[in-house]
Design brief:
single chain, four-stranded antiparallel β-sheet, alpha+beta, 1 helix, 4 strands, 60 residues, globular
Length: 60
């Protein structure tokens, strides 16, 4: 997704670490990519699937 505004986790280190980045500004969709491969593939997830995924990752 060229021209997208990508946001990296605040938990990521200066080198990018092993993090995901998400692009904002796409209503109903969450574009996701590997921070180590900024020109690599992008996975597009709908918001209805993304929200439970994030909650599951945060769960203890």
């Amino acid at each position: 997704m060229y021209g997208a505004d990508w946001r990296r986790s605040s938990h990521s280190n200066a080198n990018g670490g092993d993090c995901l980045e998400v692009a904002e500004g796409h209503p109903g969709l969450v574009p996701v990519r590997d921070s180590k491969r900024p020109h690599g593939p992008v996975l597009i997830v709908n918001t209805a699937a993304w929200t439970p995924f994030v909650e599951a990752v945060k769960a203890p």
